[in-house]
Amino acid sequence: MCHVIVTCRSMLWTLLSIVVAFAELIAFMSADWLIGKAKPSSSEDVDNRTGGSQEPYRPTLGIYGRCTRISHMQFSRRDTLCGPYAENFNEIASGFWQATAIFLAVGIMILCAVAFVSVFTMCVQSIMKKSIFNVCGLLQGIAGLFLILGLIIYPAGWGCQKAISYCGPYASAYKLGDCSVGWAFYTAIGGTILTFICAVFSAQAEIATSSDKVQEEIEEGKNLICLL
Which InterPro entries match (predicted)? Predict the structure, then answer.
């Protein structure tokens, strides 16, 4: 018989697992890993609301994507265009970024799988006599290691030609040049830290769902058990 067991700690772990997976996925897909040096404004860069010149635009560069401003000559205006600069894996600008993409992709796939499974832990707490919480916590720890490797390797690619075109000639491995780090890189770091927090917190979720109070309510014949 299936017993639906909901506790504060198990629900918090489930929510954190889902948030971490989405945060890492969004960061990976974003082009805001590097913010390039400012492009000087031209006579065409006019703010339609104020009539004055717009602030200099700073293009952004991701692992496989980028955002830049394109000009529409017939309309005398400029739009921001975002999309992948690499049509396939081999066209990613640096071998280091290719390795980063692999490590991050593996880590994110594991996190997404755990996030999917975590939704069902309310009904199924063990499989083959193994706690699902403990197995998921172990997988989250492994995913965190892949994410760390990807984030450590990523700055080594700052010396590639693509990064130099955005960051200036002084950009090199682990040196930003005229660029600054974008929100996606910080989000990936924050998500990695939360991944390890989730891995540790999974043990607390397992303890909460197998406590004596839960067992007492199961023995009383309750199928829906909600505990604070």
Answer: LHFPL
